[in-house]
Amino acid sequence: MKNKLWKTAPYLALFSVFMLITAFVSLFFSKTLFYIEMSLAVVGIIASLIIYLRFDRIIRIAVKSSSEKAVDRKYLDRFGFPVVAVDKSNSILWYNTAFYTNVCDENDVSGYSILNLISGCSVEQLCSSTGGNVTIGKSKYTVYANPLDDGYVLYFFDDTYYKDTEKKYIESRISVAMIVIDNSEIYDDEDEDNELQAIIQVESLFQKFANEYNGYYRKTAKGHYMIIFEEKDLEKIIGTKFEILEKIRAIRCGDICPTVSMGIGRGEENLRKSHACAKKALDMSLGRGGDQVSILCDGKYEFFGGKATGTEHHSKVRVRVIAKSIVSACQSCDKVIVMGHKFSDLDCIGSAIGLYGAITSSVKKPVQIAVDFETSMSKGLIDFYKAYAGEEIFVSPREALSSVTDKTLLIVVDTQSEARLESTELFKACKNIIVIDHHRMSVDHIENTLVFYHEPGASSTSEMCVEIIDNFPDVNLKKAEAEALLSGIILDTKNFVINSGSRTFEAASYLKKHGADTVSVRQFFADSIELYQNKYKLISTAKIYKKCAIVIADEEMDEIRLVASKSADELLGLKGVNASFVLFRAEENVINISARSYGKRNVQLIMEKLGGGGHHSMAAAQIKNVNFESAVRMLIDAIDSE
Prior knowledge:
This protein is of the alpha/beta class and 642 residues long. 43% of the residues lie in helices and 20% in strands. It has 23 helices and 23 strands. α12 runs parallel beside α16 and α12 (346-362) runs antiparallel to α17 (479-493).
């Protein structure tokens, strides 16, 4: 039945009566006119009768189907809650008094679409066992629908009080924020006055911040704070995208520019669990380089901020403890396998070679490096070290897997994500795991390890390995191994231009003492003539968008991954470019993005929006089942939102 069609029946009946009267009058003047008017009257009477009977039948079926008893509509009319019958086209056929009074506000809505009242839901959705939530005016209903042959009967249960109570409970749930000043421990004694002034300004901002959002503020230690919020106030803070990070970043006291990391435990059932989640979230913020907020809710993270570069931390005590733990683990195992990430670069292979030399000379344990030679982007370094130390050092992940025992130690370098490992099968087969990585912590990082040495402030994994090796007992690092480690540092620092702190130069100095020759290291960066031509072919097609150079490598090229990464590096040399992005297709239905920056733009945050990750100045992402045009559009949206 169409909207309001049945409401024409009374008017059609009146029209038929009128035509009947005029027909009898016309009988005295013209029999032809009499027959015409009489025919119209009969057709009108029949049509109105059909409409009425059809409507009455639908109502009776709807009413009777809504109860196990065969009762009339008076039974439903006496219900204390609203009931309405609709047809298959969602038109309202009939409703009881409670519906008329409470839902319709005493307006006749017969023939109107029920969808106007249950906006946001379909009648089919209401047929589920859970029904649906509908708000009409100030009242909140849970609505259930009972399907019939010719329509539906809908039942409205007013549970405004309970839903308002639930809302108040949710809004009053406690969220705990744990806060730490990122770089309070790195300043010299001569900066003590400026450091004190900076901390005072930071604490003043936190006190105002807590008061503004009705929070409970407490200082727990030097540079450590806790604020407790209610859920409704946390929602408001999230709406501002934690603008307090910008305010703290704007503080200047001499050479001191403080930043803070914050972890928030949200949605937990009690204060203790919220506090535990807040500490876990704070570890994530620090692991991602600081200057950001991590919110942990229902096992999922949400991130804000992270625009500042990672802070270099000085903790030689921690490095000594890490080195001692690694030596102890190596002494307890029967063999060591070192493995990096897929498409291994110089930092990955250089770290692996450095650890090979240190462990074999210091701990005297057999070591193998598991790498896929065919997909590696460091073939030159691998060939160089094979010629120096022998072919048997490098094995494929499959070969390494065949020799794994319960006492085998696997050292993962330059990645912390299981999905990015050279071989997940080899990883799962090993029970003893050590991770060494400098990339910002990812949500899917490897857990349950013997040692998880993660330092996002380090320039490279090679730099971290140099510090570890320096604390190994009786280590004898050879010239070839020192050059392999130096190549990794040079790669990730872009020749000591980015992410280079005092620790970086100390590591380079250590390697120079062990014979590393920078001229010899340059051979690992040499390009073939074909790669060189392809690199500049891509660079010539670059487009600039908001100081970001974007290149689409839509042609097939040999070693496209290496060409793309080197092109991204070169694009940073263009005037006015703060970041570069090279899009290429290395496998079917997958578009890869290689991203680089000199630190003015955090490419990790941009790549995370596309499902990738990495470091502040070096990141990547993979987008599946899209074309280049769509991928570029997604990249631009990510740049705009950063």
